[in-house]
């Protein structure tokens, strides 16, 4: 088969010489801003986000004999290869494939955690987490509460790739953080790159509450940083102020942080203003102090996420910000988000809250 | 799935015999409960005095129905379906067309012309055999690896290629990834990526058909052996059985779900074994034998429509290609393993030999049609590539029947934005107002 294909490939390239290429719409919509600050001293290694996540799971499997890693196609590393090599290293009883069933994966993970094991579950795409919704929302989130604190499944972490990749269409692009942010009892985290991913994932794994760890899949390979090799954690519930200014507060998480960093740069060059850029990181619980202190300082706020506008997590932020910072606000809080439609395949460049939409809104915001 | 050596497991008149079977052979026969079966609402079964766990070895494996030998010869002439020569040739042509489409579109993804693709190698017989046995009015719920069904129904290569490009002639308006075909005209429900969701939907559709006076339609639902692990699969089987729905639940068991081999997907006797246990008429066939698939689906269809009952078919096959263009299967299986499915067990090869035995086909006609089939795809691709993508506004259409004011407002915002920043958007690739 493959030789036939190779031959065909040659013939087709000849035939198609004159036809326009469509690479423009497949190119990525953001510039990656690597983290230069290291959370701990010591030896580092250049890792992309996939490798940093692999490293966090490796550390866990090494130090916690109860820890297991599982999900669809996880044995060979998972479709994004985050678990690559872990089965060889730790054995088939610790890193393994499950049958193809997300509700099963979540329920199985809850059971593991209930019985004292550390469960690291992978859902192949965040778009496919919905069959597990019942287990996560009604079971994982409520286990401690309904048992009067006797039982819990805090040792469960569900990792799942989320958000846009350029060509994912309806079911390989969604950012479902807001669904889970509506569930008291869960913690929801989205990293923006390798250093953050390692520290936050290790926190989630050790956290006493069940965590949903949403990994922007476009960053797996495109983002590389010098990641400390040793064990470190980054606190959940804390945002990071990545850039400082006084004109406005820009808030995002995951891939969108990089869009906002570029927007802040554009605003500096084009409008001569400086902005605070905040990576929320923790969606639930979120860092009201960092956000509100910044907005009180700047008086203007732009929130941006890939998920649709209506009932997106930006709505929760905006409501709290206006409550806490009302007298400091110089303009209505702005939201730049995906539109209220499913995530479309060929229209992705028009759907995303890209730098031009964010920049335009910011320019209006500071003029208000 | 009869209990070993006993065909009359559930027939109550053979109660005594059954009691003997399930108990230890050394014990004398005892009559329990006056020889009457239990009357629990949940089970009408005989009583026994010895406990015995049943497991997969308690039953013979469900056999695999075949009509053809690998060399294309009919094994039992009574099983050779009576299909007109012209139809036979059309069936073969569809498989070859499918192969050519797969080769070229797979490669075109490699060159970045389309964003994604999935091939169908070694499952061509499943597609064409089942499609040919159905009425064109039967409703199809597909998973994604069934494009041969679409071709056989009459969807053109052009329509399929347009979908892969997401251009303005794609009936799905460019919204879905490649291979998510759908055609209302040909009764092919648009494919959705989340696995197994189509299964209970197919059952519901069959229930609706059943209620139509003088119904002569059934529903067929395709799904992989991997998808069969989802909760929705169980729901579908159980609904189909309890609500008596004229639906054919067709499992394509190709041995893999991405990298996960069948042995890690389920234990026991495959997907077929689930049928009888849920009260569903079930058959297992060789999916590389087009005629076996054809017979199974024809008889399943007749049974389903006549009796308003579901049928489960498990067609055994092998996924010869990578899972998709996002996958490299050399990471989890050997080339050696693939070989025989590409040669001796190739459904296309077997069916070609069958046609040759019948004098309907020869090397020359094969060469000619392969060349033509290939040209059809290449020509279509050249045209598809020149076609613009749909107007960006299609992004916000069809979310609701009527566009709510909030979405209208968003459309307006984007329109103004594009007026201001046109140079930052690939507008020239999309149709304009
Ligand atoms: C709910 C859900 N979970 C996971 C996936 C990702 N996924 C796509 S195809 C696939 C394997 C399916 O295997 P199978 O059903 O055997 O079909 P095959 O690809 O072998 O034809 C997986 C896991 C998905 N599409 N939907
Ligand atoms: Mg399969």
From TrEMBL, chain A:
Q: Which domain of life is it from?
A: Eukaryota
Question: What is this protein called in UniProt?
Answer: Uncharacterized protein
Q: Which organism is it from?
A: Dendrolimus kikuchii
From TrEMBL, chain B:
Origin superkingdom = Eukaryota
Q: What is this protein called?
A: Uncharacterized protein
User: What organism is recorded for this protein?
Assistant: Dendrolimus kikuchii
